[in-house]
Task: structure prediction
Amino acid sequence: MLTSANLAAILPFPDLDPVAIWLGPVPVHWYGLAYVAGILLGWLYARRLIDNGKLWLNDTAPMTRQHLDDFILWAAIGIVLGGRIGYILFYDLGPVLNDPIRAIQINKGGMSFHGGLTGTTIAMFLFARRNKIPVWSMFDIVAAVAPIGLFFGRIANFVNGELWGRVTDVPWAMVFCSQHLVDANNGICPAGPDPRHPSQLYEAGIEGILLFLVLFALCRWALALKKPGTVSGIFIIGYAFSRIFVEFFRQPDRQLGYLLETNWLTMGMVLSLPMVAIGLWAVIRAGRAATRQAA
Result:
């Protein structure tokens, strides 16, 4: 139950305009800039990893800067198409079947990380095969930089006032209601008047900053890139546990709610659970392959 002291401690949600700048009549949204920033900074960090031959098996990176530059377009297509198609399949299939034009109405639905991961994985596999790059090393280099994109994506979710958390009375709770949100929703505050967890910031910190630091340490000090598949596996496991944890604080998608008549199980949890098994398999496979090579 909220007390007057709780209410006084509630943090106001900043009245941020989802549009960063206008280029004439064309709005440039923070969400789009987040994708650009994530891909650009990830590309720059990946170049540094490739340039450091000591991090790789046989002291030679399995791909060149030119490969990485060429892959940027493949990655962008995989992220966008996979993310959108995944959202429709996992969260919005019924409404889209009833109104197919909804599939391209981004304002009526967003992107799915699990779909984006699937799309990017397909793009990585095809690109690696086409350019004769070891597939697992391709996965590793992208996994090492992926938390950068996750961080910016979650910050953009916060700026947009979307994917908010469950109702709470913690001192850092926020009421996700600003003039921009009200204006965009026909005078209604979509999250209601209740204070909620800023779960977007939780995800930015755990999936973004913390997971990046873990993978950075694995690459730089544990030399995990010398065991292809290790970094990919740890990333998948790390993201899965991070997402499952944050789902306990995040409000489930309105059209789905909680699953199996529970008050805690969400689609995000269900989609993340298989990732733990996949990640463990990848790490174990990498270890066995390294042992065979050393024998």
About this structure: Strands lie at 11-12, 19-23, 26-29, 174-175. The first strand starts at residue 11 and ends at 12. Residues 10 and 173 are 5 Å apart (CA to CA).
